[in-house]
Amino acid sequence: MNKSKVLQIGPHSYVGGVSIHIKRLTSILNQDFEFEYIDESPSGLTPADQLNIRRLKDQRSILKALKKHDLIHIHSGNWLLRLYFIIFSALFRKPFIVTLHSYRIKGFKASLTERLLSKTKLIIVVSKEIKGKLPQSLKVKAEIKEAFIPPIIENEDILPLSILKLIQDIKLENKILVSANAFRLTNFNDSELYGLDQCIGVAQLAKKNQLNIHIIFIIGTLRDEDKEYYFSFKDLIKENNLENFISIVPEKVSFVKLIEESDLVLRPTLSDGDALTIREALFLNKNVLASDVVQRPQGTYLYKTGDIEDLYLKIEEVTSKEASKNPVLKTLSDYKQEYTKIYNQCNN
Q: Which residues form a coiled coil (predicted)?
């Protein structure tokens, strides 16, 4: 029997939760479905043999890809690109699914998006908060499914030697290793969206109060336009002599592997969806502390969003506790069965 052809659209080459979700999803389903990809990452990150919506020379091939596939699955975070793919999927009369990994648009953008979302077979939302933002007419089409799919640990890349050496040094000093990450640095209402400025604030308090911690903050992608912002944080660390309390690593790494080495995982975001980082930490039975900006999974410790003092106090509190064992509620087989059912139903 021929496999159904499914076109996955999203930031496939970016380092972040959505790209990890797409890769794990297709990995567990590739025995039953045939996958191709349209990338919406910056074109320089995309391999030459993969389509990218931002490359002019790929436009004709993208339209051909939309025409030839049996099912389209749109993960686009950019509202304009999402609309582009919805419009052409509808014009070509192709069944399509839209996964909303976040939903921060309002006004005209939201109104237009919601009108076109009515054409989809299914809307997958990764949290109750996102579903709550949709109009009633779309809620009936929306299904809540967390973005998390368990990692296959042996398939994860080993950490670079520089990070392994940093971890070794931290542990030799008997410091508590705290990890956090961002797929890229983002200014959000004059603060850093993923909480890097908060982590530096915590490092200052840790130095002042002699709290024996070291934060490793991973930045998955450092683009040219982000470098000035990045160096402003590097300078702040240097000016305050915080190098023994926080390290910023602008490198694409397996955050799962870093979580394995960590004593505490942070998710100090100012806005969020269903954070993959949190579910991975819980899956690996690590203590995880996150902002209360959205509802978090059971087992997550919370602090008041954006409050550096509260974050510091909660780090003190949580690092004094043993990590609890978190029950594995679903296996890879369960996720495979769920998505196979979704794809088959939407393709009929």
A: none
Phi, psi of 165, rounded to the nearest 5 degrees: -65, -40
| Cα distance between residue 93 and residue 119, in whole Å | 10
Q: What is the pLDDT of residues 44-61, one digit of tens each?
A: 889 999 999 999 999 999
Please determine, for residue 276, whether its predicted confidence score (pLDDT) is greater than 80: yes
Fold of 4-150+331-346: Rossmann fold (3.40.50)
**Residue located via tokens 């993969």:** 50
Could you tell me the strand order of the sheet in which 287-291 lies? 246-249, 213-219, 176-182, 264-267, 287-291, 301-303
Could you read off the pLDDT of 197-235 as tens digits, one per residue? 999 999 999 999 999 999 999 999 898 999 999 999 999
Question: Tell me: the pLDDT tens digits for 59-106?
Answer: 999 999 999 999 999 999 999 999 999 999 999 999 999 999 989 899
* Residue partners of 134: CB distance under 8 A and separation at least 6: 103, 114, 117, 123, 125, 142
Q: Do domains 4-150+331-346 and 153-318 have the same CATH topology?
A: yes
Q: Are 143 and 125 in contact (CB under 8 A)?
A: yes
Q: Where are the domains of the chain?
A: 4-150+331-346, 153-318
The CATH fold of domain 153-318: Rossmann fold (3.40.50)
pLDDT attached to residue 31: 94
- Nearest to 21, CA basis, from 179, 151, 185: 151
State the helix-helix crossing angle for 79-91 and 107-117, rounded to 10 degrees: 30
Closest CA to 265 of 221, 213, 305: 213
